[in-house]
């Protein structure tokens, strides 16, 4: 990924173009930011895996498909309630 999305339109384009997760791109639905021990552990694991490799971006607020054949593809924006 040459450029990281910065606008809602760019996020929507990732979904429309079905840009798959990769070694430097990860999608996480809004529920991934729940304040639980399990979620905190997963956030730490995701961030540390990027830090220990070539880096990348984790986009919170984009849900992946649940279907196995579409795994790692973005399905929709899931807004984060701040």
Question: Explain this structure to me?
Answer:
Helix content is 29%, strand content 18%. A two-stranded parallel sheet has the order 1-2. The protein has helices spanning 8-16, 37-51; strands at residues 25-28, 57-60, 62-64, 74-77. The protein starts with 7 loop residues before the first helix and ends in a 5-residue tail after the last strand. The protein is globular. With 82 residues, the chain is of the alpha+beta class.
**Low-confidence segments, ≥5 residues, pLDDT <50?**
none
Strand content: 15-25%
Please, how many helices? 2
Query: C-alpha Rg, in Å?
Result: 13 Å
| Spatial ordering of strands, largest sheet | 1-2
Class by alpha and beta content = alpha+beta
Count of distinct strands: 4
Q: Mean of residue pLDDT?
A: 92
Estimate the helix proportion, in percent.
Answer: 25-40%
How far is the N terminus from the C terminus? 28 Å
Shape: globular
Task: Please trace the helix and strand order, writing H or E for each element.
Answer: HEHEEE
User: What would you call the quaternary organization?
Assistant: single chain
